[in-house]
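Worked example 2:
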Amino acid sequence: MTERARGEGVFAGSVVSFDVVAGLGEVLRDDGQRFGFHCIEIADGTRAVDPGTPVTFGLLPKLGRYEAARITRA
């Protein structure tokens, strides 16, 4: 998949919520936009990340909106 298809750029932000049981979380980009994510998008292979963790991430167009992808702890 091309970078354009996955959303352009790498963004900085922080995890604002994460539900370990559901594997779903949300990141807040430094400009104030929020993006949901599923735990499979955590780049280091772990399946959990603590709220407040600074991260970098890309965007993935999915179901008519963008989701955080390739989430890396900063």
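The first strand starts at residue 11 and ends at 19. The chain has no helices and five strands.
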